[in-house]
Amino acid sequence: MDMDERKLKILHAIVHDYISTAEPVGSRTIAKKYNLGVSSATIRNEMADLEDMGYIEQLHSSSGRKPSDKGYRLYVDKMMHLHKLSPQEEYIIKNEFLNDALHEVDKIVRQATIVLSELTNLIGVVKAPSVMESRIKSVQLISVDNYNVVFVIVTDGGLIKNSLIRIKKPVTSESLNQINNLLNLRLKNLSINMINLEVINNLKKDLNGYEDIFDSIIPDLYDGLSDKDDKDVYFEGATNILEYPEFKDIDKAKKILSFVDNVSNMVDILGNKGKMSIIIGKENNLEKAKECSIITAVYGIGDRPLGSIGVIGPTRIPYSKVVAILANLTNELNKNINKMYLDDD
Predict the structure, then answer these.
(1) pLDDT-derived band of residue 98, with 50, 70 and 90 as boundaries?
(2) Which of 47, 86, 165, 253 would bridge 247 by S-S if both were Cys, CB 3.0 to 4.6 A apart?
(3) More reliable by pLDDT, 227 or 158
(4) Which residues fall within 8 angstroms of residue 271, CB to CB, at 6 or more apart?
(5) Could you state, in order of their start, the residue ranges of all structural domains in the chain?
(6) Phi, then psi, of 150 in degrees rounded to 5
């Protein structure tokens, strides 16, 4: 059966109406509200074909139709026109980040998630920058007293790790500066995966005579930059989901809220799937997400991803508006992260 232009227009009208109202759509509604130039009888016949093709479905014999996951997918891939942001939406996205207190990337992305949740009225989720994927911007030994120094690691993800090191003999400020220069020469721009045996051996030679410092900083480097950040997943606006008719059923609401509250679920859906990812209903591998749509985007420094940000909502998500808001917000987020990175260099 061919998917001709008339069927596409009718499917578009059904998707648009159902997203707006959450009510199954009948042929009379389509004929009355959408000027398609055909009778309700013709629309009814076309809707029967669309149902046979799997693009729409009927919940009850007496009810109208609603889009299926397949119908939403066709709409998203072939028919959707991006919503034009209102001046207020543009203002909020541009100005919510202009906060002098936000010096670290993980704070900026958390703020972005709050903004995203508020603008879309959906659950906003974010994976904070991965320490494993972040690269060292600087390392610094700072003297506390004759026998204690603080070892500070700053990454390009804005993540700062510090630890106290006990040393056996006092180090002059001149020697400490020299050690810091050597450390930065060897370690700057490396990720944890790049710190191999050659790097460690070179550091050991550089720090000849300061074995206690070397012996302390190597474990601290690995500990500070180890993969302990999988749990740095945040979500905002979970109660927004309760405003949608689909989740008025308390069991359905509990199901989605427990899904969102599970860190491993969030890590899975926020895995870098490309610049923009739209997963609809049963396309989700996770059982508890099969009544949801999940839209995510990647943010990062230049072409290098740091994490993902997105929304979770019903399959009746207003795709056009949400994709436009997420695209604009991610663009602004990237600008701020890159500006902060360049300013700090």
Answers:
(1) low
(2) 253
(3) 158
(4) 308
(5) 5-79, 87-130+229-344, 136-224
(6) -100, 130
